[in-house]
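[recover] target loaded
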């Protein structure tokens, strides 16, 4: 029956039945969202309002009964006790959650679980408000049976916004098909300290590269168009300056001034918000003594008043409690909750801090209107997403349309484009396919070391290792494999066998590096971060909580590499890693050196494609690689004056930001700069002068020669990944707006200073400039 028919029917009914037929305004999809939100809040009790701000841990909220999924008793009790509005990581599976392939959910069952949770909320709560399901999705949905892409640092190495948009579209669809609504990621922290454990999640050290990639990812996630069925609410992480902790310790204080915040750390978030992002996670750290979770300058003054952000903010797990426990600012959790919500922090991830707000209102410690404001931001997005009208998903679609062949191929392409060729002496690569190869090293045939942190358990055969990728290119008799050693465990070695395999081969491929693979022996904090101990020696040396004091290869890996070098056979070294590790020896001694980061489920195939010339590498470094920890920080866009040499070594990085080699060569020519209204058009000719097809990442840098505040020695402003056939050329054009020529002046205002002189630099890396002109 349509709405008109329902009203006609009710007109002829008795008064009590007429009242029954009248639909609450908030349930009327024809009404404006603002009115629906206001109407619903007016009907809610304080407990119901606070409940909408809570996002407890979700993986205990369902029970598997064979192939069927039901809500758990714990969920029923939680709804009754707290009237919750969100759940986090319901479908997550990993050693921390104790969810495995045996007791976790496949995509079809995840969709069933989501439907059961929604059905319970609609039929067993007074107002029938659907629940938000938030899921980790930094490089694919962190759930069993989904597509696993390269981690963030690998995604950034593609320097390809269009490709990452396509990736994000596939991730969003996989989240939504299973009943999720909120996707955590991308991680927009600028990484300036590779000792920090979470570099792998970031997009590197540069605000422009990070911001442009983030905008494309947000567009792909559909965050700006929530009415679309496969759009997610993207939660940006972590606001702000989280990746420059003192000592490299995860969550430690950040020493940074407001000008640097505005110049470097805030712009990527603003770029993502302009692209449609509607959720932001506050970081664990403090800035100038104020925890980010209770920092009104960040959460209200900048985010709301300056940027006009209309979405909602959320704590990191337990960070509101951390205002008391870690930062020692609040005397109890009630005070911590009041500080957070007063500063502009809307939602409580974990759901244990904000229940204290009920008593705080009763005691006059906070006004209820502040809670109303926070609730309205969350409810409005539930209306925008259409959850009141369409709360359910179709399990059969989840079964058929997740981890499709198309998504698997896309994962392989992202991995291919992320691979960085650092050295290729005497053009040893690409390899010919008629040779005998010895494959050695702890990361040559390790499924989980390919994937990085925030990855679910993988069914057998779903991940291609480097060894498997190489075997797909050669006959079985042409490939031998010996592990050689472990990542960290010095008792797990068989170097003599590795040397024997190398002696019998034409070429040696050594796959070394690190690992973020969690296991069931590792201990975990309440936040899910891994805890380092001396008693447990797993491969894990990176990933959340695993900060490093050095960047050296651990275990017996260097012993293995040195021994292989002595065989005299051509040595190709592949680093699979979550942070820039020490590659000094490999740079000097390897015949070829490849950085593959954590390349995801198709990484082995992608690496083999590059090794054998089926794909010409064009990945570029999104972060500088230091020679030693003594150089940190060594980001390319440091402020003037220029660095000078250390006593022990050069001040320059081992490999600079933007660096990467190809199997072909390119020339840059005919730089032209023309002024238009409010901008400059920069153009030049790029030519592939080699004998094979390839891609080049052309990069535009800017140097402000004179300004009222100190400026970077150079700053990336634009880039383009250009594909050219051998001998072909292309006119590449960039536009520089007045805004991109502006600075943060002494009054903390972004201004264009008209008397400035700028040097425009076009190059293939931050230290390899081919064309220069002043404007």
């Amino acid at each position: 029956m349509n709405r008109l028919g329902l009203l006609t029917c009710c007109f002829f009914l008795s008064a009590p039945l007429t009242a029954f037929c009248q639909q609450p305004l908030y349930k009327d999809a024809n009404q404006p969202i603002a009115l629906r939100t206001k109407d619903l809040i007016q009907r809610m009790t304080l407990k119901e309002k606070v409940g909408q701000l809570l996002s407890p841990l979700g993986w205990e909220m369902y029970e598997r009964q064979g192939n069927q999924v039901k809500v758990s008793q714990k969920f029923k009790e939680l709804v009754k006790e707290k009237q919750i509005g969100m759940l986090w990581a319901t479908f997550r599976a990993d050693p921390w959650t104790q969810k495995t392939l045996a007791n976790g959910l496949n995509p079809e069952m995840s969709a069933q679980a989501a439907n059961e949770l929604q059905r319970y909320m609609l039929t067993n709560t007074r107002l029938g408000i659907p629940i938000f399901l938030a899921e980790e999705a930094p490089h694919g949905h962190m759930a069993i049976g989904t597509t696993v892409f390269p981690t963030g640092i690998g995604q950034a190495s593609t320097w390809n916004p269009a490709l990452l948009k396509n990736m994000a579209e596939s991730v969003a669809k996989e989240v939504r098909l299973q009943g999720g609504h909120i996707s955590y990621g991308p991680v927009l922290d600028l990484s300036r300290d590779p000792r920090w454990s979470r570099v792998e999640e970031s997009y590197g050290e540069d605000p422009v590269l990070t911001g442009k990639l983030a905008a494309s990812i947000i567009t792909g996630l559909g965050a700006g168009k929530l009415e679309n069925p496969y759009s997610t609410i993207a939660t940006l992480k972590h606001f702000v300056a989280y990746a420059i902790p003192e000592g490299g310790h995860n969550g430690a204080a950040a020493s940074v001034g407001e000008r640097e915040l505005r110049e470097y750390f805030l712009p990527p978030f603003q770029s993502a918000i302009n692209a449609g992002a509607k959720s932001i996670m506050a970081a664990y750290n403090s800035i100038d003594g104020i925890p980010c979770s209770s920092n009104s300058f960040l959460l209200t003054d900048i985010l709301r008043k300056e940027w006009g952000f209309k979405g909602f903010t959320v704590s990191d797990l337990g960070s509101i409690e951390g205002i008391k426990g870690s930062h020692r600012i609040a005397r109890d959790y009630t005070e911590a909750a009041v500080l957070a919500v007063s500063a502009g922090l809307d939602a409580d991830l974990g759901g244990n801090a904000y229940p204290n707000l009920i008593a705080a209102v009763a005691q006059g410690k906070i006004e209820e209107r502040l809670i109303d404001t926070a609730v309205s931001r969350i409810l409005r997005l539930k209306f925008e997403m259409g959850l009141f009208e369409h709360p359910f998903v179709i399990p059969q679609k989840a079964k058929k349309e997740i981890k499709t062949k198309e998504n698997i191929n896309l994962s392989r392409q992202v991995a291919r484009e992320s691979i960085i060729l650092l050295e290729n002496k005497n053009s040893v690569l690409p390899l010919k396919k008629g040779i005998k190869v010895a494959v050695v090293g702890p990361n040559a045939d390790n499924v989980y070391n390919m994937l990085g942190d925030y990855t679910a358990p993988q069914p057998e055969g779903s991940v291609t290792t480097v060894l498997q990728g190489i075997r797909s290119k050669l006959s079985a008799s042409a490939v031998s494999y010996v592990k050689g050693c472990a990542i960290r465990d010095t008792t797990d070695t068989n170097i003599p066998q590795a040397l024997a395999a190398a002696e019998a081969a034409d070429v040696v491929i050594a796959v070394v590096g690190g690992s973020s693979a969690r296991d069931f022996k590792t201990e975990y904090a309440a936040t899910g971060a891994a805890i380092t101990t001396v008693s447990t020696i797993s491969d894990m040396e990176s990933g959340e909580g695993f900060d490093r004091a050095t960047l050296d290869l651990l275990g017996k890996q260097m012993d293995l590499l040195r021994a292989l070098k002595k065989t005299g056979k051509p040595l190709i070294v592949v680093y699979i890693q979550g942070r820039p590790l020490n590659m000094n020896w490999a740079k000097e001694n390897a015949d070829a050196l490849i950085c593959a980061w954590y390349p995801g489920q198709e990484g082995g195939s992608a690496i083999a494609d590059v090794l054998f010339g089926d794909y010409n590498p064009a990945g570029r470094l999104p972060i500088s690689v230091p020679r030693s920890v003594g150089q940190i920080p060594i980001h390319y866009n440091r402020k003037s004056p220029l660095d000078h040499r250390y006593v022990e070594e050069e001040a320059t990085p081992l490999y600079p930001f933007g660096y990467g080699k190809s199997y072909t060569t390119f020339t840059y020519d005919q730089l032209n700069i023309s002024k238009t209204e409010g901008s400059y058009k920069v153009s030049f000719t790029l030519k592939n002068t080699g004998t094979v097809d390839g891609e080049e990442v052309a990069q535009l840098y800017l140097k402000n020669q004179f300004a009222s505040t100190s400026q970077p020695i150079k700053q990336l402003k634009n880039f383009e990944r250009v594909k050219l056939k051998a001998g072909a050329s292309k006119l590449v054009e960039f536009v520089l707006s007045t805004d991109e020529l502006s600075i943060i002046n002494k009054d903390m205002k972004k201004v264009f200073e008209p008397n400035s002189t700028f040097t425009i630099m076009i190059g293939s890396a931050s230290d390899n400039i081919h064309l220069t002109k002043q404007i």
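[recover] notes: The longest strand covers residues 666-676.
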